[in-house]
């Protein structure tokens, strides 16, 4: 074959390949630009909505949940738009997505259960962001209620993430729901100590502890008896945020008050009898 004829046959293929690569490259660059601009617009819209809802004094829990749902929805729409930009039939993609959703739903039923539980948590609001709770076996301050998980910070400053379904299916204790809570401690007395005087002494000293509430007044009563003597129930009341400070200060007051009063150390007495 004549080299000129061969070149004439190859050139159309080269030209076609170059045109295809150029068109594909232009679409890829366009898709990247569309993704970047779309992501920026989504973030801008979500932030704008978040600020607007916060200005209306809407609860932060609901604001976070709404913005998360909006962000996920808009990103799905963006992906569908990019596929349409490449010429992929979006109606067929929607049908494929629906079929895939059924399969994924069966495989990821736990994930969907977390999503549904998250919606119920926002709807019924057993707790809000900032509340101190026990849920799913974890005690801590609520940092965020997400679409699938809730984030808590424990008292020892460990960030813990719990599936919403586990929280919603279990008991929830909200220590921030009420205006105050009770600190439960005990004080052991020696048999020889005047119980009434010890009770009066502790009641007076408890009132001097910072953040202990005057009403309801601290409670000091006989809880039980053991081999060492009477056991007093010591129960001051305080706000949830002051719980541990009052807890430790109350223990300190018990120790110092009994020491200054000269109460003997509690001890057990045994009587041994020897048979003749």
Radius of gyration: 34 Å
Largest sheet: 5 strands, antiparallel
Rough shape?
elongated
Helix fraction by DSSP (H/I, runs of at least 4): 40-55%
Adjacency order of strands in the biggest sheet:
4-3-2-1-5
Round the mean pLDDT to the nearest integer and report it: 83
Describe the protein in words.
The chain contains seven helices and ten strands. With 276 residues, the chain is an alpha+beta fold. The chain has a five-stranded antiparallel sheet. A three-stranded antiparallel sheet has the order 7-9-8, with helices on one face. Helix 1 packs antiparallel against helix 2. The longest helix is centred in the first third of the chain and has 53 residues. The chain starts with a helix and ends in a 16-residue tail after the last helix. The model has no long low-confidence stretch (mean pLDDT 83).
List keywords for this structure.
single chain, 276 residues, Helix Hairpins, SH3 type barrels, Alpha-Beta Plaits, elongated
List the helices and strands and how they pair.
Blueprint: H1 3-55, H2 60-85, H3 90-107, H4 109-124, E1 132-135, E2 138-145, E3 149-153, E4 159-163, H5 164-168, E5 172-174, E6 181-182, E7 185-188, H6 195-206, E8 219-226, E9 229-235, E10 237-238, H7 243-260
Antiparallel strand pairs: 1-2, 1-5, 2-3, 3-4, 6-10, 7-9, 8-9
